[in-house]
């Protein structure tokens, strides 16, 4: 009996400390990211990913940090290194789980970054891939606000010169904002970004 | 009891939170600090990023021997087992990763296009959006340095070489008949639709030991690995119509294209320099099937085309025009598999089969030719390490050719040949560092028809001198079976392969939006076929004693930074070349060589008009011709050549586009050369006739429409 209790106590302690370690680590990484320390944030997420092979979140954030940071990076060599890194870690998670809507949204975002980097070269090639990735994300979870918004936003971005009708796209943006309102992230660290940008886009729609 | 548990817990936590400090400095191979590297104990959260000075220090709760990992984008990941208690102020030296994007690449002789190309001189869209190219891959390549514009032929002439000296490969396997049917001074075009290819590598010399049977150049076309998505393409043009469909499934995809071309409307509108009995017509189809296995991709490519035309051409040797009636059928099949096996092995294998049948009527005579050509190929590549790659492979070429000439009066001659060539090669790629790369190869070939075996060495080296600049040098020995015009008489003469050596020095400078290349080369030709009659005949006396040289300088400048939405490139080639071959009495510059060639290509996108407009200007100095009225051989020179082409693409909606193009808008009266009469007239003068284009201008209007679920699918790529 004594032994059992001891074991149980030990187990609990280990379990609890492991939990908090993950939370602490993730929390610290988010802190770094918020401060604009993208490299440090990405590296901490990487370390967490290396230690926590069962969670898809650390790698997801490694990819997300690098992809979003690439939008403001001017050096094309650095941009392609960042995007390669993002794609590599996303591939790791994609192999484990092919029915995660968020991973497809992120995939679309990486392709979008390639288009932004060099529209003349990558525009034609990646546009259809962006749309395909959003379509998959929506097929898995039609109520994922990031998928609904991302798809509309990408097309609005090109509407200036493709002359596509923006009305139905703006309707999608409005729908996404509603979905953001009802969206409940599964865990504390699950993806929940996107509402601010959607509100900005909504303004340009009017 | 309680106390015991508490004690254990306390012990546990004390144990867990025992702190060790790990510290040191990260440097590169030159000892310079590396900032921003990720340093951590593998499997834990413990770690940090190196500072601006490369220093790092972090606390860890781990004890004993653990693995320290140091990783950073451009370097090879470092990992080492350390005792965490005793790892302080250590220097970690990172090795540069030689496979990063900015590593040196051998560029001598090689012009690349496509996604996988490190430095792309042509972008995939350029093939279709270059004014004057009209979707012809070959015409777009003719705006690159090292090529000659030979308007009456249309094929690729590279660095003083004949068109036959360039071989075309699809997915690594040779295409025996890459060009459409042609005859007497009518230009041809490439058979391949540009839409199915994702990468083009055009080598103007010094290429890899993987490729043989080409004296001057190889053109490598790679089909897309993956289809975009399900779609249907419709095109309506002033010269015909086209239909395409792509279906994509989970692991496979299928694309099918068909086109019918009829030049009648164009020939009715634009004045023609020849008299057409029936216009140029072609019916063609292409299909690509791809299947993705876990470790590789299987591709099947098949193309069929049937062409015909019938025209009367003035000929200086006859009072009446000569009628040419051409009927050509061509089929090409290519199956390839590319995949990985084991660790670090890559396997490429392929089979191709080409069938070409031409039926030509010259006035009353019939010329019927059939060619069956096949190739088998196997290639293995092993990544021994990041610094060394080894590849080896083997090829087998089979060609059967038959020709039947019947003048329907007295002569009925049947000629032909069977050729089998076995070849094997090996090649090593050494990356000494990010700045120095070497490639050395050797190719062995045995030709049963010529009864000869050859060893051809190839070598190239590249050295990076600055962030964007690098030099490369390439050397190679090349051999090729003489062209069909000769070897169809193999019964009467034992031919040998023609041979060439290339020496190429290249400098390339790149930065975002800008590419500059300068290349100097020297080519030495030997073993060229000579004959002693006016025309090539079965009873000509042949020998393999001809020789020649070509030397020159090629410059290329491509820039997209000058002005927003403007892209342009400039190609300039200078060449000095002479040969003594065919029935040349002395060394002379052949008639397809112009000493100076200049192409300027511009593309400008006007957002407000949803349009892209482009101009291409091609200029070449005069080409030599032989005037039998003169004592000196090949002493004549034509006036210079110039053609300015224009195109305009207007995006109606994302899925509909209107495309308009005109070549030679200025209507320059170009002369490619002169044909002289075989016999002098009564006054003892050889009369002549200028070789001119079939029409001075070509114009094209087309409407292209893509139907797909994806509304963002862009018609621009179908320009």
From TrEMBL, chain A:
Signal peptide residues on this chain, from the entry's feature table: 1-18
UniProt cross-references to SUPFAM superfamilies, sorted A to Z: HCP-like
Keywords: Signal
Stated name of the protein: Tetratricopeptide repeat protein
Organism: Flavobacterium hungaricum
Automatic annotation (TrEMBL), chain B:
GTP-binding found in the keyword field: no
InterPro entries from the UniProt entry: Beta-barrel_TonB, Beta-barrel_TonB_sf, CarboxyPept-like_regulatory, Plug_dom, Plug_dom_sf, TonB-dep_rcpt-like
Keyword presence, Disulfide bond: no
Domain TonB-dependent receptor-like beta-barrel, chain residue ranges per copy: 283-665
Stretches assigned to the TonB-dependent receptor plug domain: 119-213
Family matches, as SUPFAM superfamilies: Carboxypeptidase regulatory domain-like (SSF49464), Porins (SSF56935)
Topology of the protein relative to the lipid bilayer: Multi-pass membrane protein
Subcellular location: Cell outer membrane
Family annotation (PROSITE patterns): TONB_DEPENDENT_REC_3
UniProt keywords, alphabetically: Cell outer membrane, Membrane, Receptor, Signal, TonB box, Transmembrane, Transmembrane beta strand, Transport
Signal sequence extent: 1-18
Family that this chain belongs to: Belongs to the TonB-dependent receptor family.
Official protein name in the record: TonB-dependent receptor
Record organism: Flavobacterium hungaricum
Lineage: Bacteria, Pseudomonadati, Bacteroidota, Flavobacteriia, Flavobacteriales
């Amino acid at each position: 009996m004594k032994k059992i209790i001891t074991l149980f106590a030990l187990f609990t302690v280990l379990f609890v400390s492991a939990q908090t370690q993950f939370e602490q680590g993730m929390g610290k990484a988010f802190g770094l990211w918020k401060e604009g320390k993208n490299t440090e944030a990405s590296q901490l997420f990487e370390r967490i990913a290396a230690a926590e092979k069962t969670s898809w979140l650390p790698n997801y954030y490694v990819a997300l940090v690098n992809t979003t940071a690439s939008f403001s990076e001017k050096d094309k060599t650095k941009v392609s290194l960042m995007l390669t890194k993002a794609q590599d870690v996303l591939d790791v998670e994609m192999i484990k789980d092919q029915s995660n809507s968020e991973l497809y949204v992120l995939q679309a975002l990486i392709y979008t970054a390639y288009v932004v980097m060099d529209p003349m070269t990558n525009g034609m090639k990646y546009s259809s891939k962006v749309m395909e990735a959003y379509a998959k994300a929506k097929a898995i979870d039609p109520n994922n606000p990031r998928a609904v918004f991302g798809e509309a936003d990408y097309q609005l971005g090109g509407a200036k010169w493709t002359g596509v009708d923006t009305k139905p796209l703006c309707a999608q943006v409005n729908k996404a904002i509603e979905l953001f309102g009802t969206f409940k992230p599964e865990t504390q660290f699950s993806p929940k970004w996107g509402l601010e940008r959607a509100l900005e886009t909504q303004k340009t729609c009017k | 009891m309680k106390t015991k548990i508490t004690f254990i817990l306390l012990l546990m936590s004390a144990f867990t939170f025992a702190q060790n400090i790990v510290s040191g400095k990260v440097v590169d191979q030159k000892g310079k600090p590396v900032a921003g590297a990720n340093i951590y104990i593998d499997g834990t959260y413990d770690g940090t990023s190196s500072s601006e000075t490369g220093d790092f220090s972090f606390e860890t709760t781990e004890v004993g021997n653990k693995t320290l990992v140091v990783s950073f984008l451009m370097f090879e990941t470092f990992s080492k087992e350390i005792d965490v208690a005793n790892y302080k102020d250590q220097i970690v030296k990172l090795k540069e990763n030689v496979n990063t994007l900015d590593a040196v690449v051998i560029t001598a002789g090689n012009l690349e296009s496509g996604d996988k190309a490190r430095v792309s001189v042509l972008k995939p869209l350029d093939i279709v959006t270059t004014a004057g190219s009209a979707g012809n891959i070959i015409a777009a390549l003719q705006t690159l340095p090292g090529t000659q514009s030979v308007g009456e032929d249309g094929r690729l002439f590279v660095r003083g070489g004949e068109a036959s000296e360039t071989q075309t490969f699809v997915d690594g396997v040779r295409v025996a008949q890459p060009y459409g049917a042609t005859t007497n001074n009518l230009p041809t075009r490439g058979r391949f639709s540009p839409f199915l290819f994702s990468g083009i590598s055009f080598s103007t010399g010094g290429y890899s030991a993987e490729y043989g049977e080409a004296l001057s150049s190889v053109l490598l076309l790679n089909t897309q690995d993956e289809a975009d998505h399900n779609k249907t393409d419709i095109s309506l043009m002033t010269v015909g119509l086209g239909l395409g469909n792509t279906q994509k499934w989970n692991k496979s995809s299928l694309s099918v294209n068909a086109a019918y071309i009829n030049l009648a409307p164009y020939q009715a509108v634009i004045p023609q320099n020849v008299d057409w009995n029936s216009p140029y017509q072609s019916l063609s189809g292409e299909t690509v099937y791809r299947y993705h296995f876990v470790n590789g991709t299987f591709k099947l490519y098949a193309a069929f085309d049937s062409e015909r035309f019938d025209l009367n051409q003035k000929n200086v040797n006859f009072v009446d025009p000569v009628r040419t009636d051409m009927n050509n059928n061509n089929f090409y099949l290519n199956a390839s598999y590319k995949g990985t096996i084991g660790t670090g092995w890559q396997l490429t294998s392929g089979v191709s089969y080409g069938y070409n049948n031409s039926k030509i009527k010259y006035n009353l005579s019939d010329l019927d030719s059939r060619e069956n050509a096949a190739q088998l190929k196997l290639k293995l590549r092993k990544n021994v390490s990041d610094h060394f790659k080894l590849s080896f492979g083997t090829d087998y070429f089979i060609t059967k050719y038959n020709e039947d000439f019947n003048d329907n009066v007295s002569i009925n001659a049947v000629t032909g040949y069977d050729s089998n060539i076995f070849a094997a090669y090996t090649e090593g790629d050494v990356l000494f560092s990010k700045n120095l790369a070497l490639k050395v190869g050797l190719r062995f070939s045995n030709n049963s028809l010529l009864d000869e075996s050859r060893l051809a060495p190839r070598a190239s080296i590249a050295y990076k001198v600055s962030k964007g600049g690098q030099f490369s040098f390439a050397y190679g020995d090349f051999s090729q079976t003489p062209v069909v015009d000769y070897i169809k008489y193999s019964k009467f003469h034992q031919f040998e392969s023609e041979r060439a050596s290339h020496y190429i020095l290249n400098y390339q400078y790149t930065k975002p939006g800008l590419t500059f290349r300068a290349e100097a080369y020297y080519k030495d030709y030997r073993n060229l076929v000579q004959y002693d009659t006016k025309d090539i005949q079965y009873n000509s006396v042949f020998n393999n004693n001809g020789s020649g040289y070509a030397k020159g300088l090629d410059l290329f400048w491509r820039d997209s930074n000058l002005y927003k939405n403007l892209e342009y490139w400039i190609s300039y080639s200078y060449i000095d070349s002479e040969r003594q071959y065919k029935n040349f009495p002395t060394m002379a510059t052949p008639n397809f060589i112009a000493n100076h060639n200049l192409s300027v290509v511009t593309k400008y996108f006007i957002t407000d008009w949803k349009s892209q407009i482009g101009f291409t200007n091609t200029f070449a100095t005069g080409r030599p011709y032989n005037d039998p009225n003169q004592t000196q051989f090949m002493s004549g020179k034509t006036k210079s050549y110039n053609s300015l082409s224009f195109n305009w693409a207007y995006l109606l909606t994302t899925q509909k586009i209107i495309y308009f193009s005109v070549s030679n808008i200025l209507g320059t009266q170009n002369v490619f050369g002169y044909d002289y009469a075989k016999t002098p007239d009564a006054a003892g003068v050889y009369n002549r006739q200028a070789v001119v284009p079939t029409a001075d201008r070509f114009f094209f209007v087309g409407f292209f429409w893509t139907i797909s679920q994806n509304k963002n699918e862009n018609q621009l790529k179908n320009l």
